[in-house]
Amino acid sequence: MGGSIGLTLFFGLFLAVGAAMLFWGGRSYYYSLEAAHWPTTPGDIIASDFRVNSDSDGDTYEAKVEYKYAPDGYERIGKTIAFGYTASSGRQFHHEIYEALPVGAQVAVRYDPSKPDRAVLTHGVNRSILFILIFGLIWTVFTVGILSIFLLSEQGAGGLLDNMVIYSRN
Q1: Residue 104 — left, alpha, or beta (φ > 0 → left; ψ -120 to 50 → alpha)?
Q2: Are 6 and 74 within one domain?
Q3: What is the phi-psi region of residue 124: left when phi exceeds 0, alpha when psi lies from -120 to 50, beta otherwise?
Q4: Which helix (H) or strand (E) element contains residue 9?
Q5: pLDDT for 112-170, tens place per residue?
């Protein structure tokens, strides 16, 4: 009994991680497409940083910006470059973004008219979104596959014995 509870919790955790990746990727995908239809307003880059994060797996890079914009006369601060944009090991990719967005640059800010605090500098599906969707899908399918193997192995010989005729046993 305890083994099946542990197995359920183990695979439940892995499925939850896969579901979270798919949810986050799907949400980013949705907003990245929606942003193409949002109105724009002028904005100014007020902070720009190129971050290098180092750990035992190596370095990851990320451009971080803050921009101010006022779509309805009320000044807001945005930090989202693109929906789904995250750090990765591609230094040149992130450095080009950082160099394109120096402090003082004027940019067009796309904002959600129903929620003006939701804003972004660019729209469209990007590689970060595709990566998280593909990775989340592979993670989830792999977890379901391994779970299926465990469940099938616990069925025992019942499936074979149900269709077997035994005339006598010594």
Answers
A1: left
A2: no
A3: left
A4: helix 2-34
A5: 999 999 999 999 998 889 999 999 999 999 999 988 887 777 766 666 777 788 888 87
The domain total for the chain is: 2
Report how far Cα 144 is from the mean position of its chain's Cα atoms: 19
Q: Which of 129, 73, 126, 81 is nearest to 108 (CA)?
A: 81
Over residues 88-105, mean pLDDT? 94
Q: Is residue 162 part of a domain?
A: no
- What whole-number distance in Å separates Cα of residue 39 and Cα of residue 108? 9
What is the C-alpha to C-alpha distance for residues 94 and 61, in angstroms, rounded to an integer?
A: 6
One domain, residues 2 and 18: yes
Strand partners, 53: 60
Taken in order 161, 166, 168, 170, the sign of the CA dihedral is negative
